[in-house]
Specification:
By secondary structure, the chain is α/β, with parallel strands linked by helices. Helices cover about 45% and strands about 15% of the residues. The protein has helices at about 5-15, 30-35, 40-45, 65-85, 105-125, 140-150, 160-165, 170-180, 195-200, 220-230, 250-260, and strands at about 20, 50-60, 90-95, 125-130, 155-160, 185-190, 190, 210, 235-240. Helix 8 (about 170-180) packs parallel to helix 10. The model has no long low-confidence stretch (mean pLDDT about 95).
Amino acid sequence: MGDLDKSLKWAEEHGFSSISITVPVGSRFLDLRDIIENPSKYLDIMSRYKVKISAIGFYGNPIDADSSRRREHSKHMMNIVRAAHKLELPVVTGWIGKYPGTVDDNIREMRKVWPDIIKLAEDYGIKIAIENCPGNIMYRPDIWRRVFEEFNTEILGLEFDPSHLICQLIDVIGIADEFGDKIYHIHAKDAEIDWRRVSDLGITVGGWCPHRLPGFGELDWAAFFSVLKKHRYDYAVSIEHEDPYFEYEEGLIIAKKFLERFIV
């Protein structure tokens, strides 16, 4: 959608109340260093619109096995936190990373990197919401339990994405209820299980669980929002559009119309 001003303008014109922004290394959409050094420029743009930025995020690998990439990504994640503080945002999102090996190996590597990131976020009072995507090690509930036990802090929580649980055949509603108090941000994304493909090829071939817009997949969204209400979640529901059948802007608008029935 171009730049921050154009994106906020489009979102407001189409009735959205917030957007979340991914900021990869070298992003031309948002320059973290410029935000940290000149926040007033960005705060001025944000003040022109009713639409809020719910979070900025980095989906990289701060525990990469390659030491130079690890340094780059951990530094970038810390700058995400600093930029969020300058923009007066309460949440940052992203991946905790992934190291080749066991869960124990990953937690060992987290201990080398994440205490500094968490300490910085604690100093600024900013929550870190880790997406439960298989792109990083925080993709499964038993691993969440290990990580939250390891880093016993209210700062660290989840960016809850139901689609990734559906594609692991995990009970989304039950897990959302268990971790309801740790849900700090939401990726509103569904997934559809192609049972004909599964019955023919099983689950090892791939292509049996495409991500879909909310309402076009397996999730009982009424039950999901009921759990969120139970745990008093009252923050952003950020549509992540990866549906193969809809154009980007079209899909966002369709998903918004579907989700509005659950949001007052």
